[in-house]
Amino acid sequence: MRTLGEEMHRSGSRWPRRTRASPRxxxxxxxxxxxxxxxxxxxxxxxxxxxxxxxxxxNLNRVEVRGLSGAITTGEEAGSENILMVGSTSRCALxxxxxxxxxxSEGVNAVNSDVIMILHADPNHHxxxxxxxxxxxxxxxxxxxxxxxxxxxxxxGITQVVAAIEEDFGIPxxxxxxxxxxxxxxxxxxxxxxxxxxxxxVFDADSGLNVHAAPCxxxxxxxxxxxxxxxxxxxxxxxTISSNAFYWPHETLSDLARIRRxxxxxxxxATAVSKRGLSDPIxxxxxxxxxxxxxxxxxxxxxxxxTNLVLDFHGVSVNGVPQLTLPVALVDDPNGAGGGLIYKxxxxxxxxxxxxxxxxxxxEQQLGIGPNTDSMTGNPLPAPSSVAVSVVNGSGAANxxxxxxxxxxxxxxxxxxxxxxxxxxxxxxxxxxxxxHAPNIEAAAEQVVRSxxxxxxxxxxxxxVADGAQVTxxxxxxxxxxxxxxxxxxNATAGPTTAPAAxxxxxxxxxxxxxxxxxPITSSLQPWDPRACTTSANPTAPVPNLT
Length: 547
What we know:
This protein is α/β, with parallel strands linked by helices and 547 residues long. The protein is built from 11 helices and 25 strands.
């Protein structure tokens, strides 16, 4: 058996990838959630109809993206496509440096995709669905060099982000859009600004958000930017005594809360486009050109495909588009003494772990598939009896590999070996590795993942798969194998020693020390969150200087 200490090897990958590492910056990153503009552009395309298609698709910025999936022609997902949208944080790529974002010349030079959104378009069922993946999710294929936060992949290009989404989540990507935040404010200003309601006064020293409570506030581009960038929001509730915003209570969910607000902002922005109408050729073309100039499309997304997208979904209501967030469990203090996740001796700060079976439920909901469907192809998953599995003890807990193999055998899997590896840390994910991109092998890994609960994720890496196995499970510290439908109670299908006895797939595994409960797939706005104005409210300018 191979150990966990072995380095990742990509000679069997579908495409070559760079292996250099990103310099780490101690400066707090002030990131614009720019990808929402990518989604807005798609909805703008849909709302505008075919009249401006030439202008929408002429002279588009293109980038080569390798590893994109082909069109799905069979199974439950036939005819659908998934569009990956990422927003780059690169200050060095901006046409004009801006002190508010941090300056490249002062070392703010990280390249991350702190927003990752996937739009699922299914013309056969006239259905759209949006899934956001939290930026701090720790995944095995984040980079070609190995595990990292999912937002770290963009340093190696959008090809690597596509690889991470397909290899770790099993979501096929047909097209990709990337963008930076250089012209976000200009796009909002081109719309004439955005109106939002602020039920409570809010403040964020990092993004610059500083708005008094009001029924309806008119935001220009810069002020809208402050809303979508806010990840350290403070608010003044009815019980807040201090008038100094620095002493107001903080919300606690950081990026997850920002995703929630950005989904609402997207609804407001799309509604503003709809109300504005696309009827004035001069102003409309100016708006469209200002948006498309900040987008980069993959090389294979043809004008004809874009035209079909417009025609298939013309007239769709943004309020009817599901906006989902992949459930994750925050791992901000695994050792009980601060410091964040320690993985192979290095600190990765605050991270989040995957959560099965909730993650699969979110992906199923987005893709419109059932629990026995291979998410990559839309075809049925293989029977467990056709899947050969080996197990490596990756946590060091006594008998963990043998207990896990026994539990998987009770579910019908062929277990072909057990072994021991080197622990990566005192808190770790369970990874289901597969060594080929052949559809039947990826489907085998997904079947194993669907048979487990807790912090479990799949990953592509040929070097991790033992001889004679299609899939190798490297065990972590918070997981369980689901109970066999015919198993008796007791230890007959017992899970790993660090997890409870095997349990039904519908019951989430208990949280381990330092791991929070997962976020829901959808979430409601909190009392302090900005939101759409009521139809009767008259917008006013924001009142500055809360501090």
